[in-house]
Prior knowledge:
This protein is of the alpha+beta class. It is built from 3 helices and 2 strands; from the N terminus they run βαβαα.
Amino acid sequence: MESEANVLGGDLDDCSMDPLTGFMRDGYCYPLQRDPGRHEICAVMTESFLQYSKAQGNDLVTPRPELNFPGLDPGDRWCVCVPRWTEAEEAGHAPPVVLDATSEAVLEDVPLETLRAYAHGENGD
Length: 125
């Protein structure tokens, strides 16, 4: 992975190595031209978000081994698509965001103040 910045302007931290996340399954949430879904927000899964996503047709709970997808549980960190997170936020189901592991590219669509309002932990960790 090339050096990427997070929404706070620092180096992008990994989001999760277990389960292994990211569009490239390398643990990081960063923009790629071949990733139209924009898996750039590192989020901590909640039951509310998982159920909301499933209701929208994106089942993140059921394992899909053929897609190298383990299925997620509340508390897991996962690279979430920018449009899905924004939609969930508007519907009141947005999961917490790990700011140090969320790509600065997200700021094109989501204001930092909004992301900070959903920051996981004291510093977004």
